[in-house]
Amino acid sequence: MCLIRRTAMEDRAPPVFVFGIIADIQYADIEDGLNYLRTRKRFYRNSLQLLRNATRRWEEQRVMCVLQLGDIIDGFNKSRSASEQALATVIGEFDKSPADVHHVWGNHEFYNFCRETLLASPLNSAAKAGSGSDLLADDIYAYEFSPAPGFRFVLLDAYDISVIGRDESSEKHTRSLKLLQEHNSNSDLNQPPVFNGLKQRFVKFNGGFSQEQLLWLDEVLTLADQKQERVTVFSHLPVHPYATDPICLAWNYDAMQSVLRSHKSVVCFMAGHDHDGGYYMDESGVHHITLEGVIETRPDSNAFGTVYVYEDQVVLKGNGRISDMVLKYP
């Protein structure tokens, strides 16, 4: 990672395409509060204003699409019977921009809605992937598409295996609960295990990827390798322990990393969830970016990015808490 100089973009040929990126808006029409650990302030109403700042900038920059990395509204909406209204409010802001928005699902989506409701909602953006695939399966929210010749985007379902993302009567819920309780003995499964280190990822607000999804991703990336495409993967949960706090890591991050490392087409993995953000380039040259969360961004700042995709590199122009970066291809 390196800081970008303004002239680095001005002196280059035009990008192949440009897209917007944002994470963890967590809008709710309530007073400011604190995070789960009561260590950080959250600006629930003002997150909508920060989204407006982002959409205005993206319109000026003529982005072709926007990637929303999950937690679009906060779980507090559920107890106030305000989930539908809150979602309509945020979607209304996105709709003011002509760019297609591709939505990733996070834990707060599942605090507000069941999987079946999400699949029938505006947060199911698979239909916008005109040059790509339909959903991987009826109940797995993962799809891929090509934003431009030679490039591919893949959106993953990080709560495919989870307690909160699956109906209690389902086999996946049973398996997920068993896995979680094997690693976390707390009565409140949102409290991390007493162990330090990577085992802290075994909490209820995280999840993971089924074998079916991993095999599908492997097939998508194999085809991308053959076509010599550049692939960016999007997920709510980070999958590299050096790009996030362990408490925000996907349960089976290692299985996902194994798939990513085996394909030369993978350029970047973008995630949210950890509101502090993070970055790491792994030994294969894949850039793991965790975006800072809107919800914990002060009203006088911002937290969104505009990504300029070139033939030889990706340039992330950050706003507010998000740093500028130049990402060379592996």
Automatic annotation (TrEMBL):
It catalyses: ADP-D-ribose + H2O = D-ribose 5-phosphate + AMP + 2 H(+); CDP-glycerol + H2O = sn-glycerol 3-phosphate + CMP + 2 H(+); CDP-choline + H2O = phosphocholine + CMP + 2 H(+). This is Manganese-dependent ADP-ribose/CDP-alcohol diphosphatase. The keyword Hydrolase applies. GO terms for molecular function: 2',3'-cyclic-nucleotide 2'-phosphodiesterase activity; ADP-ribose diphosphatase activity; CDP-glycerol diphosphatase activity; manganese ion binding. Its cofactor is Mg(2+). Monomer. Coiled coil: none annotated. CDD domains: MPP_Nbla03831 (cd07396). Residues 19-276 form the Calcineurin-like phosphoesterase domain. It comes from the Eukaryota. Keywords: Hydrolase, Metal-binding, Zinc. Belongs to the ADPRibase-Mn family. Its EC number is 3.6.1.13, 3.6.1.16, 3.6.1.53. The keyword Mitochondrion does not apply.
